[in-house]
Amino acid sequence: MEKFWLQHYPPGVPAEVDVDQYSSLVQLLEDGFSKYAQRNAYAYMDRLFTFAEIDRHSAAFGAWLQGRGIARGARVAIMMPNVVQYPIALAGVLRAGCVVVNVNPLYTPRELEHQLKDSGAEAIVILESFAHTLQQVIAKTSVKHVIVASLGDMLGFPKGVIVNFAVRKIKKMVPTFSLPGHVRFNDVLDEGARGKLQPVTVGPQDVAFLQYTGGTTGVSKGATLTHRNLVANVLQLEAWVQPALTDTSRGPVPEQLIYICALPLYHVFALTVNCLGGIRLGTLNVLITNPRDMKGFVAELAKYRFNVIPGVNTLFNALAENPDFQKLDFSSMRISNGGGMAVQQAVAEKWLKLTGVPIVEGYGLSETSPVATSNPVMSREYNGTIGLPFPNTEIAILDDAGQPLPLGQAGEIGIRGPQVMAGYWQRPDETAKAFTADGFFKSGDIGVMDDRGYIKIVDRKKDMIIVSGFNVYPNEVEGVVAMHPGVVECAAVGVPDERSGEAVKVFVVRKDPALTEAQLMDFCKQHLTGYKKPKFIEFRDELPKSNVGKILRRELRDQKPAVQAKSA
Question: Nearest CA to 88 among 144, 42, 32?
Answer without folding.
Answer: 42
